[in-house]
Structures are given as C-alpha cells and as structure tokens.
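Q: My collaborator sent me two sequences in one message, no labels, and asked for predicted structures for both. Can we handle them in order? The first one she listed is below.
A: Yes, handling them in the order given. First sequence, followed by its structure tokens:
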Amino acid sequence: MFEGDKAREVACMAHIRRKFVDVHRATGAAIAIEAIKRIANLYVVETHVRDRPPDERAQIRQEQAKPVLDALEEWLTARLTTISGKTPLAGAIRYALSRIPKLRPYLDDGRLEIDNNSAERAMRPIALGRKNYLFMGSEGGGKAAAIAYTLIETAKLNGVDPKAWLTHVIANIADHPASKIDDLMPWNFPAEPA
C-alpha cells in the first residue's frame, strides 16, 4: 500500500492462517482449529464484498469484518496467557498478534485484499521455474526471459489469452508501422470472454 511517496506494509491473513493450520496438523490443538474457524469468518465477509466498488468493500468490512478481527485479536491475546510460551501454538499466536495491526489497513481501503494469494499465484510459475533459470545461457537470455514473462503477465492482467495475443503479434509485427505499435499491445487485443 502506498501513502504519498512511501510504501506501507499490509500483512496477509493467509500467512497468519497457515501458521494455525500447521500447528493443527502437527498437534491437533483445539485452539488452532478455533483460530482457523474465526479466520474463516473473515473470508465469508470477503465473499460478500468481491466484485464490489472499493468504497462499498470498505464500508462492509468496517461493519462486518472489523468486529470479527477485533474479537480474534482479543481472543488470541487471552489464549496466549493460558499456554506455554515455548509451544508452536504460542509461536503461531504471537505471529498472528504481530501481524494483525499490519493487516488492519485492508478494513479501511477497499482496494486492498485480505491476503496476497492472487499475487503469489501469479508468481508461482516463476518460482517453479527458478532452477531452469540457471540455464538461461547468459545475461541476455535472462533479460529476454524477463521480457517474455512481463508480456505474458500483462496479457493475463488485461484478460487476454497470451498465446492468441503473441501469435497475432508475431504474425503481424513485420508489416506493422512502427508509429502504430500501440495497436499491438495486449490492452488493444480482444479480451477472452468471461
């Protein structure tokens, strides 16, 4: 999130939730499953605000999600005093309590998401292929790959099938006037039907 010319960190609820899932899988702790259920209530609100304008999202979140997040934070604080501080569960609770204040901006700004799952999904192909990048061959090969990834992700962000768009560009670029190169950009290519 940016405020003026400075970036401000916004935490990710999926990371908070994942800590409790890991503890529950390892230990079966009832507190962990209760935390997961409480977090699920925040995601229920998100299903209701999806595809709404940012101002509506913020308003609904203030009315419905803020009380849930406040109660979660209060409940976690109380639970922390009842368990050993050296357990993985205590670590998960401390992590959540340290991140919740940095998550709160999503309640006020409807442009923000409760988690960064969509950004992580977009980066997954790059992370999965990182071993292959060792074999790009040269710095130039790495730069060419970066350009290709940028073009593909730009097409996806514009709702355009990257393969269809790149096929169109490659078929037409040789005869296309340089002064009208913007005509070949993904935002000028027909989007895929929803």
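Q: And the one she listed second?
A: Here it is, processed independently of the first:
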Amino acid sequence: MNNKKTKVLVVDDDAFIREVLASILEGGGYDVGTAENGKQALAAFSADGAGVDLIISDMNMPEMNGTELIKKIRDAGSDVPIIILTGNSEISVAISAMNSGASDYLMKDENIQDTVILSVEKVLEKHELKKHNIRLMKDLALENERLEREKVLAQKVQRSLMPGSLLFEGLELSAFYRPSDKIGGDFFDAWEANGRVHFMIGDVSGHSTSSALLMAVSKGILHSLGHTMHSPAEIVQTANRMVCGIVGDSGMFLSLLYGVYDRAAGELSIVSAGHNPVFLADKGAVEAIHATGAVMGWDTDDKWDTNRLAFACGASLMLYTDGLTEAKDDAGQEFGEERLMSLLNDPSPPELMVEKIFKKVEEFNAGAFADDLTMLIIRRKG
C-alpha cells in the first residue's frame, strides 16, 4: 500500500504529534498534509477531498473536535477512512468515534512509530476491499438486470411462437403451456398440409437464451420441412442434420416427438427423438409410445424408426414435456408417468382434460415448478 500518491491528512492540535506522525508517514512513502484542528482539517478536506485518501485525527481539539469532524465528513457523503488517535484512558471515546464512522483507532504511546504505518496500511487495504466489493455488487446488480431483461424478452418470444389456432376437421386439440421462472425451451405446434395433420412437441436442453434461440430455430426448421415433406422420419432426420450444424460441439440437444395423422388411413405415424413416453388412450386402455431413436443434435447420421398406430374414433393422444412427470413434491418424489396415465381415460373434452391434469400436478408439487410444463392432447372425434 506504500504509494507516494496516497495522501494522508494528519490532524492534531499538538505540533509535536503532527510532526512525528508526518515524519513517520513520509518515511513510509506517503504524501502528508497537516491541520491543527477539525475546522482546519475540514476546510482542507473540502478543498481537496478527492485527493485525501486517509485522515488521522486526534479527538480532543479546539474549534472542532474529532467526533464533529467525523460527522461533518460523513454527512457530506464521503467514506474516506479515518483513524482516531487516542490515549490509554480514552478507549471508550475512541469506540464511540468508531460508532460514529471512524475506521480504526491508534494509541498515542511509545509504540506509535511502529504501529502507525501498520494501522494505515490495514485501514487502506480494508477500504480498497470495501470499494472493490461495492463495485462487484454494482456489476452484479447490472448483470442481473441485463439477464432479467434478456429472460423476459426470451419468454415473450417463446410465447409468441406458440400456435394461435388448433382447429382441424375431425379432431379436437387442446394445449397447455406453463413457463417456469427460467428461460425454457419447450415448444409445440400443429398444422395441416396436403390432407394430413402434422403435430410436434419438443424440449431443448438447458435454461438459457441459447435454449430459447435453439427452440425458435428448430421449430421453424421443422415447420418448414413439414409443409414440403410427408414422412416424419425423413423430416426429423433432415432437421437433425441442420440442428447438428447449429449446435456444433456445444453439448446442446433437443428431444422431440413428431407425428402425422393421415385421415384417409385413420392412422398415426410417430417418430420420437429421445422424447419422454407419450400415451395413446382408447377404450380404457393406455399405450405408451417410447422413443424411436436418439435426441436431436448429437450426430448427423442418426436415424429414427416410425411407430404406426391406428387412431380410432374417440381415442386420445397425450403429448407432454418432462416438466409434467418430473414435478416433485416436498419429499422429492416425482409426479411420474403412472399418475399421468391414470388421468387419461377421461371422457372430458381435451380442453378440460389439460386443466384437470395441471391442477393435479399443481396440488402434488404445491405449484413449485422447476421446469416448463407443456401438454398437447389430440382426440379423434366420433
């Protein structure tokens, strides 16, 4: 801390003390100014406050004592370190001064020549650490504000990408989306092309702006391919090659279920890229449809099988992201697939079903959702 640019102001009505302290500090490499009392010190500080790095002040002085000097400086908004000089019989006064804003106290005894430099260095180091911590806290607050703005924007973009209409002849569709307080990567969509209804649900890894961006890009890619291609496997494989080129070696990936309903055949063609099981409920039976290949974004050469299933009148297909089944109660137990399956043989309209399921999950985990929760139910009318 010995730096000739460091300015110390010594305040004492005893000329001998002033000279002794000035001599010691100058010998230690400090730039030293002196004042005979608090009033003179305050005038010097006010004239050159920015240049004074530390004040060493006696307590008992004429015109303005040490306590008054501390109060004036602190009331002016300065946090300049102040060391109080005190005798053996004035410890209580020194403690009172520290409670008023002094940084430390120094005994005026035969050891002062050895202790003054150590005291100054200690106080200056503590002051620098305090300023450093304040800067860090300000930087952290600004970063948190930036991240919060970024999160809000990402969530707005995510909501704007959700489909506005889910009306298709011969089908009833209802979706439910509940974002967590993090930036998520859930998405779903459904559209009709060339007499077939395409639908999908996906979940991008992580909770960051990158996750939201990958979600938006992937959804756009799949939507575009789904308007020009018919085979779910070809759509997913083509999209995967494009996604791999985007994520590179970042470690990001997405799980996806992509399906097509062929009205003429009354059949579902489903590809699941590492997605959690979805369920087909029909006449009291519930069938789990498992992944038919790896998640997307790992390997450009990955391929997926296709599940082909009859989609009878009255049957319902339940799609969801793992934010539903992985919701946990206070004991850390997950809601799980079995609880979900028990709710699927419900004759209620899909719109009411998703509300009922969400209420069950919300009761289970007391509304403490750590992840986005997305559901899409597709029922064939009849």
